[in-house]
Write a structure and sequence with these properties.
By secondary structure, the protein is α+β, with helices and mostly antiparallel strands. 18% of the residues lie in helices and 43% in strands. The chain has one domain: Roll (Pnp Oxidase, Chain A). It has 4 helices and 12 strands, in the order ααβββββαβαββββββ. The strands form 3 sheets. It has a 7-stranded antiparallel β-sheet with strand order 3-2-6-9-10-5-4. The chain has a 3-stranded antiparallel β-sheet with strand order 1-11-12, with no helix packed on it. The protein binds flavin mononucleotide. The site of flavin mononucleotide (FMN) has 16 residues, from β3, β5 and α4.
């Protein structure tokens, strides 16, 4: 007899997005290089994977312009955004790729990824593995350098809105 689970209708993309969007996240800009030019994309699908060694993962939509460059150059950066960076998050999600870094101070170490000066925390990563899961790539990176440049509060994202962190404690 088929279980109730297998006969139940699968969640629709709309239902899935609503359920996943209920889970609050921080917001990052993932950066890398394409033919020597900086490239970046707003990414909330980010989490720690392992402490020793220090591994993290990001999920990139197969159509995300960072997918091939990350795989090709083998490095990427995770810029964790501050609570005053909602505009920056929007810019790295919707502005034309070539305009995203315009007027935006950034730097990099030799062999490292672009570091946005506006981000309080930056993690330089080397690609460990990439795997396709549905319509996204899961990219596992090894953190090789962390830079903390300010104690600003993180930007939050919930139900399609950017929110400011307000400690309950
Ligand atoms: C808050 C927020 C979170 C996002 N998270 C992700 C993500 O985790 N993975 C991803 O591939 N795209 C994510 N996106 C969408 C990408 O930023 C966007 O599709 C991409 O930068 C568009 O580039 P294109 O217009 O050049 O295709 C997110 C967008 C926003 C606004």
């Amino acid at each position: 007899m088929a279980s109730q689970l297998t006969t139940a209708p699968a969640p629709t993309p709309t239902e899935w997005r609503a359920a996943m969007g209920y889970f609050p996240t921080g917001v990052t800009v993932v950066t890398t290089w394409r033919r020597g030019a900086p490239l970046g994309s707003t990414v909330s699908a980010f989490c720690s994977v392992s402490l020793e060694p220090p591994l993290l993962l990001i999920c990139l939509d197969r159509s995300n312009p960072c997918c091939s460059p990350v795989a090709e150059c083998g490095v990427f950066g995770v810029n964790i955004l501050a609570d005053d960076s909602g505009d920056l998050a929007r810019r790295f999600a919707v502005a034309p790729e070539l305009e995203r870094f315009e007027g935006q101070p950034f730097g990099s170490l030799e062999g490292g990824a672009p570091q946005l000066h506006a981000a309080p925390i930056f993690i330089d990563c080397v690609v460990e593995t990439t795997s396709l899961a549905g319509d996204h790539f899961i990219v596992v990176g090894r953190g090789v350098r962390i830079e903390r440049t300010s104690a600003a509060q993180p930007l939050l994202y919930h139900a399609g809105r950017f929110l400011r962190f307000d400690s309950c404690g």
